[in-house]
Amino acid sequence: MEKNITDSLLKEYSKEFNTNLNNKIAKNAVNKNGVFNTAYNSDALRDLEPIYSVEVKDIPEVTNQKQSGRCWMFAGLNVLRPIVIKNLKVKSFEFSESYLMFYDKLEKSNSALTETLNNLDLKDDDRLLEYIIGMGGQQDGGYWNYFTSLVKKYGVCPKSSMKETISSSSSSEMNEVLLNLLTKDIALLRNEYKKGKTKEELTSLKEGMLKEIYNVLAICLGEPTQEFTYEYEEVNNDKKDDKDEKKDSFKRIKMSPIEFYNKYIGEELNEYVSLVHWPISSYKFNEPYMLKLTQNVLGGDKCISLNVNLLDLKEAAINSLKDNTPMWFACDVTAFSIRKEGYLVKELLNIDDTFGVNTTFDKGDRLMLKASQCNHAMTLVGVNLDDNNKPNRWKVMNSWGDDIGFKGFFIMSDEWFNEYTYEIVIKKKYIKPELLKCLDKELNLLEPWAPVARISD
Question: Which positions are catalytic?
Answer without folding.
Answer: 71, 376, 398
